[in-house]
Structures are given as C-alpha cells and as structure tokens.
Amino acid sequence: MPRAHLALDLRSRASLFAHLAAMERAGVPIDRALAGLSLGARHEAAVKRLRQMVGNGRDLASSGQLSGVFTPLESALVRAAQEAGELAQIHQRLAQRYEAQARQAAELVSRLLLPAGVLLLALAVKPLPALVAGNLSGTGYLAAVLLPVFWLCALLFGARALWRHWQQRRTDQPGPLDDLLLALPLVGSLQRRADMRDFCDSLGLLLEAGMPVLDALPRACGAMRNVRLRREFATLAPRVAAGQSLVRAFDGLRFPGKAMLIGVLNTGEATGRPGEALLHFAHLQAQQLAASQQMLASWGPRLFYLAVAGWMAYGLLSGGGFFPALPAELAGR
C-alpha cells in the first residue's frame, strides 16, 4: 500500500525532480540515478524503498507511488512521460513547480516571524505591572507568560494537523468546511485561485506529457483541495466525452479568470498545444495568487501590531504597575 503523501515536503520534492531531470538529460540509468539521490535522513526510508522497487524491475512511476515518494498525480505524470519519452521535461517542470511553491511558502513564513516575536514580547510585558506592584510573584509571572505560549503553540499545531487532514481527505462529498472556506471574503478567493492554479497546471502537464484529455481530466481534478470545486470540475470529463471541445466544457463553469482561460485555450487548441496554454494560464494564476499573498502578508502584520500595541497599552495602564492604586483606608477619605 502506498503511504500518505506527506513523506516529502515541497523543498525535497523540488530537489528530487531536479536531480531526476539532470540524470535523465545526462543519460544515467534510473537505478544509478537513484543511488546518488539524497534527501536527508528524514526521507531516507522512503528513498530506500524507491531504490529497492526500481531494483526489482518496477518502472519509476509505479515504484514512486508504491513507495510513497510520488503522489498519484506525479505517478500519472511520470507514467505518461515514460510512454511519450519526455521524462526529462516533466521532471524539470515538476522541479520548477515545487521550487516556486516552496519559495512562496518560505517568504510567507519569514514575514510571520516578526509578528510572532512581537506577540511573545507582548506576553512578557503584560504581567510586568502586576509584578512591579507586588501583586504577582516570580513564579506567577512565569506562569502568566508561559501558559499563554503553551496554549498558542497547542492551538497552532492542532490547527496545522487539522488542515493537513482536511487537505488529504479521500472523499467526493463536500463538507461544511469546504463551503465555509469558499464563502469567506478573502480566504475564498485565495482558495479558488490556488485550486485553479493546481488544476490547470496539472492538466497542462498531463496533456504535454501525451496523456489523452479524458484520462487527464480526472487526475487533474485530484489536485484540487476543495471538494466542492473538485465536484464542479469533475463535470468537464462527461462534457468532453459527449463531444464538446475543452473550451466549450470550461465555458459551462464559473471560476476566477474564466475569460482569460477561454482566450488562451482557444489559441492553444487552434495551434494544437492546449497543454501549453493551460500551463501559461496556471503561471498567470500563480503570479496573481503570489501578489495577493504578499499583500496579505504585508498588511496582516501591520494590523496585528496595532492590535498588540493596544492590548499592551491597556495592560500597562490598567495593571497598576505605573499608576498604583491608593490603599483602601486612604481611598475612602
């Protein structure tokens, strides 16, 4: 049984496919290429399973999925590329795809480090007035600082685990969270754009690898995280099977950038390269998504700083450290 698709992170996937692309261009056999592959101790067990399966005579696509190194979509891409003789090109495209996504994720994390530091500083400063006034012991001060940090960390890791579990669901039935995410003003737009990018990127890669469109459409739908959107785009394959062109099938759906996609896909079908047109549209979607994420990462911390500053000011003014309260016997006179 293949393992879950969390074995490799984005950076490791980029390194994996960049290595495979370089070895393929150099004409190195796959068993020797994998012998020189290193993705760190964390992923060594998965890479070892991949080497063993390839050494036992399995092809790279099947070995990758069974070992848990490849996702089903990556396995389908590699299998189609094997049949079309385009392995180096597909490896390179996947390496570029994951490198870009890893870079965007790293930029977002780096932008969030400073707000996290400001929050920790605020948690350390807020109990200071009570400590100065003598209303809080040293142990009490540490507890007042460390307990919120503990609960925030628990909340963060819990939310991250739930998010990963939600993304890896294997169901065709949309849940309340799918509809909620799409209904949120900013998050819904980012979710739609990200799923459109992944769908068109995956479909374009599959078509460029030589896979028939009716086989490629269901696999590309599997790249979409939101089940509601996945069900909507699953209607493309029956329309194409009924005789509609890919452009006309897309015209029956609603999604951001529809007019742009119809335009580039018309040109792609006219030149016989719909996969290339889809990849171009996915690149444009990725640029717009990155711009939206950068704007959010720029304005989010500013609003966060303002909220934390107000919270700290309230704590300092109301805590009694700088404006101690009069004793009760004096206050009653």
UniProtKB/TrEMBL annotation:
GO CC terms: plasma membrane
Pfam families linked: T2SSF
Keyword terms, alphabetized: Cell membrane, Membrane, Transmembrane, Transmembrane helix
Domain Type II secretion system protein GspF: 18-125, 199-315
Membership in a protein family: Belongs to the GSP F family.
Protein name, entry field: General secretion pathway protein F/type IV pilus assembly protein PilC
Transmembrane feature ranges: 112-134, 140-163, 303-326
Organism name: Ectopseudomonas guguanensis
Subcellular location: Cell membrane
Main location: membrane
InterPro entries reported in the protein's UniProt record: GspF/PilC (IPR003004), T2SS_GspF_dom (IPR018076), T2SS_GspF_sf (IPR042094)
Record membrane topology: Multi-pass membrane protein
